[in-house]
Amino acid sequence: MREIRLLAEFGNAAQLIAAVERLRRERYHDLETYTPFDIPELDANLGLRRPRLGWFVLAAGLAGLVAAYGIQWWANVHSYPLNVGGRPLHSIPAFIPATFEGTVLAASLASFFGALLVLRFPKLWSIEDEVPDFYRSSIDRFWLAMHTFASDHDRAHAEQLLKESGALRTIARVGTEWQSVGRSLILIMVLFAGMNACSDRVGQGFDWKRMRAQPRYEPFGGSRFFQDGMAMRTPPPGTIPREAVSTSFDTAAVDTATLSRGANRFQVFCAVCHGVAGNGNSVVGDNMLPIKPPLLTSAPVVRLGATQLYAVITDGFGHMPSYAAQLTPADRWAVVAYVRTLQRGSAR
Amino acid sequence: MSASSATSSSVPVRERSDDQAARTSLETHAVLLDVVDDGTLTTELLAPNWTPSRTWWPLFVISGALSILFFVAIGVTLGRGIGAWGNNIPVAWAYGIVDFVWWIGIGHAGTFISAFLLLLNQRWRGSINRIAEAMTLFALVNASLFPLLHLGRPWFFYWLIPYPATTGVWPNFKSSLPWDVAAISTYFTVSLMFWYLGLVPDLAAARDCAPSLLRRRIYGIFALGWRGRATEWRQYRLAYTLLAGLATPLVISVHSIVSLDFSITQLPGWHSTIFPPYFVVGAIYSGFAMVLMLILPIRRVFGLQRIITKQHLDNMGKLLLVTGSMVAYAYVCEAFVAWYSGDPFERYTVFFARPMGPYAIVFWVMTVCNVITPQFFWSSRLRTSPIALFIAGMLIWAGMWMERFIIIVGALNRDFLPSSWHFYAPTWVDWSLLIGSIGLFSLLFLAFLRWVPFVPVSEVKRLRFEERRDAA
Lengths: 348, 472
Hints:
The complex is a heterodimer of chains A (348) and B (472). Chain A is mainly alpha-helical and 348 residues long. Chain A has 3 domains: 1-176, no CATH class; 178-209; 249-347, Cytochrome c-like domain (Cytochrome Bc1 Complex, Chain D, domain 2, Orthogonal Bundle). Chain A is built from 13 helices and 4 strands. In chain A, helix 3 (53-79) packs antiparallel against helix 4, helix 9 packs across helix 13 (329-347) and helix 12 packs across helix 13. Chain A is elongated, with a radius of gyration of 39 Å. With 472 residues, chain B is an all-alpha fold. Chain B has one domain (25-471): Formate dehydrogenase/DMSO reductase domain (Formate dehydrogenase/DMSO reductase fold). Chain B contains 17 helices and no strands. Chain B has helices spanning 2-10, 14-26, 38-50, 56-80, 95-119, 129-150, 176-209, 213-222, 230-263, 275-301, 310-341, 344-356, 360-372, 380-383, 386-412, 428-451, 457-471. In chain B, helix 10 runs antiparallel to helix 11 (310-341). The longest helix of chain B is centred in the middle third of the chain and has 34 residues, at 176-209. Chain B is globular. Chains A and B meet through helix 1, strand 2, helix 3, helix 4 and helix 10 of A and helix 1, helix 3, helix 7, helix 9 and helix 17 of B.
């Protein structure tokens, strides 16, 4: 944001237009006006260049056109060809409506957001806001700002011209953005002061040590709390590891009921990706990126132990999430048993 | 003072003056009446945003109640399914689609007024375009709800959007339903951007007039930092014109695509090539009717007779007459093509089922409302009478709903096989959705009147500037 070195306020549009024209005739450049309504008559004398938004909009429109047509072609011709009574898959007339909408949508988004981008909007503070009564520029006053002068004499001359053109008042200089930077600095300092106030020793700086000192027991450390002076406790008699409840499985217990339960659970939860026969033949599996689910009947999976299969179901592996929430430990073992059945079936 | 007199000669009036004279000769009334000064104008036009008028609260409560009815009906539709509606084979489309076509048609007038008339340099549009654009937006909110509810499982509506799903299934773009999705979502987005961009300078004025700090902040954020610089106006003018240029073909495409939902089927009464233009004209016609129903009370309640003058009423009356006559021509054309086709089913639908079938009463009321009503506006006295225009607006507004009913239900209930003919009767849910959607529209519109500058203040100021310059 540049410093404003001369600012003038006018009571009506005609005076502003005349003043701009006069300044321009006197070879003053770098003018900016602020008006409550659009005054295209000013553009020529302000030396504004033609905005180039149109080219951006055109490019966006063409990109929208290609994208909309491309999506339709990809979807209906390439990725998911659907034969409707033998009609052509690549049916140009049917693709026109959505292509048109895509073009208009992209071009419109480009004109709206392009304009915001060029204007650097949103811009909630601007140097002119520091001028008292400047806000009337959106209501009924017309302002003119000048940024650069060759000499102080030039500046005085311009001020004289503006007064002659009917300016209600002129303002010599508007403070730079340092005012606002200063305000932010004060705010930041106040915030730091607030954080400092959280210390339990007010006035002695921030207590950084508290972050590091975290009293706790180390595994083989001592403790004054227990009689034997050790921090670690022996589990009560008869305690078994949490995993031991479900990781043991009696292979002799596999019966028809277990297998049919396993088949049922497999078809519900596993077959969507691994295929009903465990051979990976499924729509989801085919479309999975970047790698497809492994064939359950392939040699590497056959070589896995039952406990390893159980662990994959419980904890997941690669892309596969954990199925612990969906399958009880007994069900998981049933699924493992069923997978074994599938593997044997395919080996034969 | 010498400066200001020098001004009037130096302002580039030269190429405008001829054009100006030609234009004003068509205007029988002033477009803007004795506005004191810009400051008073701004204060007066923004005053309704700070203090609500006395009629606002009762209207808000009534619309709120009707909106609750709407949401109850939506809840019933979601809970019980489409069976809660009166639809049944062969009348698979009924109120849901009638309301959809009706609302989306109403939306078209807003874009017509703001975009077409902007491109045609019609300066009278400036006073009413904001109201018309808001009407478009809120009508589109309603319009987009109906086809979604009609899906049966609205929570899967995103299946209509092309996205790479693991199922590998894509929408079928050879069906008209994905076209609808593209058209409606584009139309809503573009209308919203067009409306908002036009609003920015007025939001800045509201920011600078706001009576409290909180309001100043809120309007300030929405004004995006507009300061009225010449560079800003220039960019704004270009972006706004570009959006208008894009919205103009868009608005024609939207109702054309809606009409393709019908005309690409084989049903007699639907399978017709005149449907796209016929629908577009009907849409603009119904929208003008609704614009009148909104503008005339607003003009009276807020005392805007100086801003929305008799010239505006006169122009709206003429537009009703023109679009109404085009709609009448489309009716005649449709009947002629049905006869000329020689197709017995189509002849039966148009010449027997419609005028003499189970919905004959709707057909005749519709014909009177849509064909006879606008013809009164050959009279310049009626064109400037707010009461005549309001009544006509209501009749056409209702008549256009009936037109959609006749097209949709009237064609479906008599299909090829007489054994499957079916009389369609709406249920209370159907009625609640229709009435409730009007309530939701009113609710949104009242919120708009309360919190948004509903007359484009900066455009009216520009108009005042031009008027004074031309006078001088």
